[in-house]
Every structure is written in structure tokens, then in C-alpha cells.
Amino acid sequence: MHIRHTLTPVSAAVLITGNALGQPVWPPPYALLEIKATPDTSVAPFGVSESGAIVGFLSAPLVGFVWQDGVGQYLRSVNPSYRASAADINDVGWVVGMGGDFAGNFVPTLWIDGEPMSLGTLGGDRGEATAVNQLGHIVGEAENSDGYHRAFLRRDGQMIDLGTLGGRSSYGWGINDLSQVVGHTFSDDPNLIGQRGFLWDSGQMIDIGTLPDGIQCQAFDINDLGQIVGHCKDADRNDVAFLWENGVMRSIHNFDLGRSSWAERINNRSKVVGFVMQMGYPRAFIWDEANGMRLIEDLIPPNHGLKIRIGRDINDGGQIALEAYRGPNQQGIFVGALVTPVHPTMTLADPTPGRAGTNNTLSLTGVTPGATVRFYYSLRGGGTLIPGCASRVNALQLAKPIWIATATADGNGEASITRTVPRIARGQTILFQAAVQGECAISQLVVWRFE
After folding, report:
1. Which of 74, 118, 170, 291 would suit a FRET pair with 64, their CA atoms being 20 to 30 Å apart?
2. 301 prior amide bond cis, ω within 30
3. How far is CA 448 from CA 7, 10, 362, 427, in A?
4. Is 13 helix (H, G, I), strand (E, B) or coil?
5. pTM for this predicted structure
6. First and final CA of the chain: distance in angstroms?
7. C-alpha torsion 280→284→286→287, nearest 10
8. How far, in Å, CA of 42 to CA of 181, rounded?
9. Is 424 helix (H, G, I), strand (E, B) or coil?
10. Please, what is the Cα angle at 388 between 386 and 390, to 5 degrees?
11. Using CA atoms, how far apart are residues 45 and 320, in angstroms rounded to an integer?
12. How confident is the model over 271-288, as pLDDT tens digits?
């Protein structure tokens, strides 16, 4: 007997792969574009620009990289014998991170057009740049002449020691376009122990406090609205993600998803990414005021074959630099990815009659009349760049899509194809999507299990 599945039940059945925490979102609002490297090379992404360029480092060789729309570039150190690691990128393409110098030290490094420049330290040997704003102001941490790590702001060619809250060390992690800096240091209050999140603004460093009855915090990012994110220990000593705004700190953690969480970055639309610990493993999340904390795993296409670990950064367009891994456990190969919003404008119907071993029709509506449509299928979800289309505009939600056929839309904006589905497809789940050549237009994703 043939059982016709509607889109939502089929999708939910496919997507619930050992996740008993709730129904994933359907249709998935994102595509997942994997950053390719050699099979035995781990990829660690850290920052994403407004144009969708991702920076980070590769494990073999140990070098920094920039990746955008399928094209990658290595970043070498000033001393090419040493490895490099990139942490952030701004919209004019300035990349910051850490690289080796000719004294044999790893120091804060800036790349402009791929060329490295050592930024120096605060009098010591080592350091690292962690973030750069649109003005080219850079933050990070560097050793001073006493060998202590201190948060720095590099502005107008000068390295500025941002000080501490009374302790010896501090670390700068985030900066906004107002050149406000956040990070962590130690309090000058002897009754307060551990790390303390700080906000530095116009020469003054303040302690942003803790959660109610909590202790110690680390602040990792600040947006242009002055909202700060990071993690704190709550009253029960759990590490939980926080949002600080107008002097008030609150937890954004969801204990239904795990015992602890870290917020890594926040964009100017108040969307936060990070990770939540679940059964000993990190799982990437996105948080916003309307939806709360959600697993990114529940927002991307099914059958992608990856373990989604950490949301590292998010731009104002909602694109996320993501760390995942491929393998049965945490010893697998680490994979970088760009999670990018998709914008379907066409409606693809389920295959009809939906049975293997016979002709099936795929019908599409909402097409520009006269446009050429390409129909695709795949066994795996994920993402693929559309030729001639930037990732920030649109992307397919299929990994390794296979072209089925091409059709021309009629005057009503409808197009269809009919092809024989082989008997071997019986019992298999197939993913379908359509795209218009030259328009960056896509349909929604269809998931179908053939009988």
C-alpha cells in the first residue's frame, strides 16, 4: 500500500536522528557550506565578515586561511617557518590573528591583502590578536615587559595596554565599531575570586558583574548596540551563556539542551552563537529574543553526515562560522563550515506519485515566466554554491547535487519534469531542490522516502 507523506511528517521523521529534545525546524532556514581541505586536514574557523568570508586555521599544514564562496587562500607568518592562525576579519579584508616572527615568538599579526605584518607586543615576547573592527582597530592580548598577559588595543599604529581590575593579567576578546572592548581580567576586590568580565570604553575599564549569586565571568564579544555576551558561573556553579545590556546581565541558557553553555559572538541584530554541552560534547547553538536558544543542528538540512560542534561567529546577515567534525567520536576530522540563510522564492511539490520503479513528476510554481529551471537531487543535505551567486545571496541545501533535468517556465510561472525513478530507490530518502540559472532563485527543500 502506498502511503503519501506530507512534507512536515517526512521531514521530522528524517531529522530526528537520536535527538529527543524536540522537533527540528522545517523547512530548514539555512544551508551548510563545508570548507574543503585535504581529507586528513582539520579545519578550524573563527571569524566571518559581512560578505561571508571565513578565517581560521588548518591543521596540516598549520597555517591560517581565508575562504570565501569556495575559494581559499593560505596566510603565512612573517617568518614562513612558523605556523599562523587567523581569528577575525573585517569588511575591507583585514585579517588578524597570530603568527611567528624571526625571533621565534608567536605575536599578534595583521594580514592586508594576504601580506603579514607583526604588530609587536607590550614589551614581552608573545601575544595574539583576536578581533578587528571596521576602523581597523585591533584587540587581543600580549605580554608586557614583566611577562604578564595584558589586553591591548592597537589604534593608529600604537599598542595600548588596557590595564586590569587590580590583578596582573587581562585578555581582550571583542571590539565593536565604537572601539569599545570586552574581555576578562581579575577584580581588585579581594572578596571576588576568579575571572571577571570587563568593558573598556574611552580609557576606563569597568567590571560588568556576574549573574545573581554567581561568580566569575568571561566576556567574549560586544556589538554596536553595546550588548555583551560570554559565559558566567551561575548560583549553582554551572557555566552558562549570558547577555549583558544597559548594566544588566541575564542568563540566556536553556537547561533543556544541556548543563552548560558558552556564548561566543553576537551580531548587530542581537543574534548570539556559541555552544552548549550535551552529554560531554559541545553542540552549536543560535539564540535570539524571539526563539531563545536553539541547536543549529535543528536548522540545517538532514543527512549531512557531520557532528555540529561550535558556532564561532555570526555576521549581520545571519551567516555563521561553524566548527563541526566528521567521524564517530571527538577524534574525527574537524570540519569548518559556513551556515548561510536561504531564501526560497519558488515552491517545489512532492514527487508524484512518489513510488520507485515508475515515472515521477516534479512540479514547480512561482518561477519567472520563460526562466530556465534546473532540478536536482541528492542523498545528502548540506549546501552547495550556486554558480555566479554569492553565498550571502542564496545557496542550494544539497551536498553534491546531481542534475536531473532542465525545464522552461511557462507564462504562469510553472515548470515540471517527468523522469523514471529506478526500483533501487525504494525505501531510500531523497532530497530534491530546484534553482533558476542566472537568478540565484531556489525552491524550498523537499525530502521524500520512495516506496
Report:
1. 170
2. no
3. 8, 7, 12, 10
4. helix
5. 0.93
6. 9
7. 10
8. 31
9. helix
10. 70
11. 10
12. 999 999 998 899 999 999
DSSP state at residue 352: B
* pLDDT per position as a tens digit, 164-207: 998 889 999 999 999 999 999 986 666 656 789 999 999 999 99
Place of cell 558566567: 232
Q: What is the pLDDT of residues 292-329, one digit of tens each?
A: 999 999 999 999 999 999 999 999 999 999 999 987 66
**DSSP string of 255-317, one letter each residue:** TTT-SEEEEEEE-TT--EEEEEEETTEEEEEEEETTTEEEEGGGGS-S----EEEEEEEE-TT
DSSP character string of 86-152: EEEE-TT--EEEEEE-TTS-EEEEEEETTEEEE---BEEEEEEEEEE-TT--EEEEEEETTS-EEEE
Nine-digit cell at 20?
529527543
**Considering only CA atoms, which of 230, 259, 228 is closest in space to residue 244?**
228
H or E element in which residue 61 lies: none
Cα 278 from Cα 255, distance rounded (Å): 10
Closest residue by Cα to residue 180 from 126, 133, 218, 216? 133
The answer to whether 240 and 203 are in contact (CB under 8 A) is no
Tens digit of pLDDT for each residue in 361-396?
999 999 999 999 999 999 999 999 999 999 999 999
What domains can you pick out in the chain, each with its CATH number?
23-341 (2.130.10.150), 347-449 (2.60.40.10)
Q: In what order do the strands lie in the sheet with 204-207?
A: 171-175, 181-186, 195-201, 204-207
Q: Rounded to 5 degrees, what angle do the CA atoms 326, 332, 338 make? A: 40
Q: How far is CA 146 from CA 118, 164, 176, 321, in A?
A: 20, 14, 29, 36
